[in-house]
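Appendix B, record 7
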Amino acid sequence: MNQNGNTFLARTVQQRTGVGPTEIVAGWQGLLVEMLEKMAPFLMPGALITFRTLTSQETLFFSQLREEAPIHQFVAAFYLPPSVRHQMMGGDPDRFEQDRQVDAGALVASRPGDYTTIVNALFAHSPYTPAVDVYENGQLIAGYQFADIDTCVAEIGAIIERHLSDPSAPPESEEEKG
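Structure tokens (predicted):
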């Protein structure tokens, strides 16, 4: 593509999405920060945690997450199951219907005590799309969509490592990777 084509594409993207932080994205990242701050006393570097009371399906899914999505030593994360989100939104715990949920929950990760960059996964059931979004300083800096929840779970560890790697570590050279 020539320079004029690149300029046209860049202008189109800018008009549709804007450049820099937006109120909506910054607000969402702010909500995630609030959740991380409330969970901070329980979060542990290198661990994925969740809430005490889960449905049987949520327990199975959390076990799958812990097994297949490694959380690195420089990251803290929590799993927010649908039943807990239902209660957070004012829902009656006795009226929660697991089979009618549109997702299997969410995962929120950041560096411990540093909420500059946050990785947020939503494990959506079909017909919706499982996705991982990465927020930094009020901006959506990356988004990943997956065909199914299992693929999303399989990729979340690499996404977390990519965006939340140890900031003091020098970047790997191509020779070190191979």
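Remarks on this record: The two ends are 31 Å apart (CA to CA). The chain has one domain: 24-166.
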